[in-house]
Automatic annotation (TrEMBL):
InterPro entries reported for this sequence: Methyltransf_16 (IPR019410), SAM-dependent_MTases_sf (IPR029063)
Source species, domain of life: Eukaryota
Listed Gene3D superfamilies: Vaccinia Virus protein VP39 (3.40.50.150)
Region (Disordered): 1-30, 89-110
PANTHER family xref list: HEPATOCELLULAR CARCINOMA-ASSOCIATED ANTIGEN, PROTEIN-LYSINE METHYLTRANSFERASE C42C1.13
Identification of the protein by name: Calmodulin-lysine N-methyltransferase
Ranges annotated as biased composition (Low complexity): 13-23
SUPFAM superfamilies assigned: S-adenosyl-L-methionine-dependent methyltransferases (SSF53335)
Pfam families assigned: Methyltransf_16
């Protein structure tokens, strides 16, 4: 396979923010004091949409110099007409000079990027895929921000793909929305049967009944083919941060008095008025020696204020780190001859020049 030409990428930086309930310590990061809310989207760039309303995006962890590639990358196929997304987990193609490469890996051909780019990217082999139904009207309807998927959930799944040991014990996700983040985590944990998962259970929570109804449907459909013996038990519950903050007894009743070793929140810290109830709820359900993982765009002021609150007001040990995600807007498959996609797609597409 010939080497793909150079190309431009969107570098989307997320921060997986971890806290542990030990002695009080200042966050080891420079935090902005600006209080203006950033937009929910990372960038206002355009989708490249096919005639039948399909937009494709490819996400991968930015290279860090390690010789070992992440176990998977994620392709998103967005059906804008049906508010439905297909997330395809792909085995990253090895570098041509990599000692880990094989003839089988070389079969996957480069895919053409959108008109905003200069070349091609090798998508790699399909591992598995999952369909996620969003809610019509999106953030403008009664379901609010939970109606759609957000890129922080994909960043989270990619991050934990390389940090499986950080997902352990009883796991809970706050603000799970339609469920894509935890679904991808569970699917990823079943990919390598040689590595035993340390997750005992997974609980998904959100404060909107309409969102939770769609989440239940997505979880049921996505994991229908996964034997229960190969994955942790899953529960879905209504937990609204403000109510949980105002009544710890109610929060305890909803969760059955459970405390969690791993607490996850993706793109939850974007409104300043929610910082206190979100932070207090995160801390209240965390077990001793447990860890909170928050993910969101690094330049969002409410996210950084939440870091401050957890550190200064709740005496949690805070660590900030940056995870860079390469995001590629892809040409629609329908515009590439012979590239009709199916569940058995092996990543072999014809190469064309970007428009």
């Amino acid at each position: 396979m010939s080497q793909a030409p150079s190309l431009r990428r969107h570098h989307s930086t997320f921060s997986p923010f971890s806290t542990t309930p030990t002695s009080c310590r200042e966050a080891q990061a420079h935090v902005s004091t600006e209080t203006v809310d950033m937009p929910l989207m990372i960038e206002y760039d355009e989708f490249y949409v096919s005639d039948d309303g399909i937009a494709r995006t490819f996400y991968e962890l930015h290279a860090t110099g390690s010789t070992k590639k992440p176990p998977f990358a994620i392709e998103e196929r967005y059906d804008l007409k049906q508010a439905k997304k297909t997330f395809v987990l792909r085995k990253p193609a090895p570098d041509e000079n990599s000692p880990h490469s094989s003839n089988e890996d070389q079969d996957a051909q480069p895919e053409v990027l959108s008109r905003n780019s200069l070349g091609a990217v090798d998508l790699g082999k399909v591992i598995t895929s999952v369909h996620i139904q969003e809610i019509d009207q999106g953030v403008f309807g009664s379901a609010g921000t939970g109606a759609t998927t957000w890129e922080a959930s994909l960043a989270m799944a990619l991050y934990f793909g390389t940090q499986r040991h950080q997902l352990s014990g009883n796991v809970v996700e706050l603000g799970c929305g339609v469920g894509v983040g935890s679904i991808l985590n569970i699917l990823a944990s079943t990919l390598d049967h040689r590595e035993r998962s340390h997750v005992k259970s997974v609980t998904l929570t959100d404060g909107n009944d309409e969102v939770l109804q769609q989440c239940r449907s997505n979880v049921h459909q996505a994991l229908a083919g996964v034997p229960p013996s190969t994955r942790p038990p899953i529960s879905i519950k209504n937990l609204e941060w403000k109510e949980a903050f105002e009544s710890q007894d109610r929060c305890s009743d909803i969760l059955g008095g459970a405390k969690y070793k791993t607490v996850i929140a993706c793109d939850c810290a974007y409104r300043h008025q929610a910082i206190k109830p979100l932070s207090e709820t995160l801390a209240s359900i965390l077990q001793p020696e447990g860890t909170i993982h928050m993910f969101g765009p690094y330049n969002r002021s409410a996210f950084l204020e939440t870091c401050r609150y957890l550190s200064r007001e709740l005496n949690l040990d805070v660590t900030l780190e940056w995870v860079e995600i390469n995001r590629y807007r892809l040409k629609p498959a329908s515009e590439i001859e012979g590239s009709g996609w199916s569940e058995k797609d092996d990543g072999s597409f014809a190469s064309q020049c970007a428009a």
